[in-house]
Write a structure and sequence with these properties.
The chain is an alpha+beta fold. A hairpin with a 5-residue loop joins strand 4 and strand 5. About 15% of the residues have low confidence.
Length: about 160
Amino acid sequence: MIKNTALFTFSGALFALIFSGIFAFSSTDDHILMEDRSRFDFDTTIEQIEKKVDDAGWGIVNVHDMKSTLAGHGHDVQNIQILELCSSHYAARILELDDERIISPLMPCRIAVYEKSNGNTYISRMDNEAIARSFSGVIEDVMARATSEIEDIITEVIE
């Protein structure tokens, strides 16, 4: 009996170890954040994104100028703005349904434009397509479509 229990425990621990290793290895390429270098300087990147957002029928509902905000608290950081992008069509599809409202903390979609000490400008955003895969139905559909459109908006700006 003790021999069987030990063998069962060892087998279970070995399975858990192998499964954990496979999971850790397979998820190393899945990043929740994406970053790309802009082809332009900071101000031009912001201008280009604003134009492309408008051209795509989206809106910018808010811009957080973190450099200015932090300067007001005595901190000096390089240029960084967080743009909140919204498609009223996609937002309405989510917010008109009770069960789908759970995703609202991720709304509106955000992208950050910032400078690094190397002098280059970057655009980062969440990989909403990866997040969408953890849902189904309307949420998955809306997030996948919105992500595709946001990527189209920034494609011409990134290298």
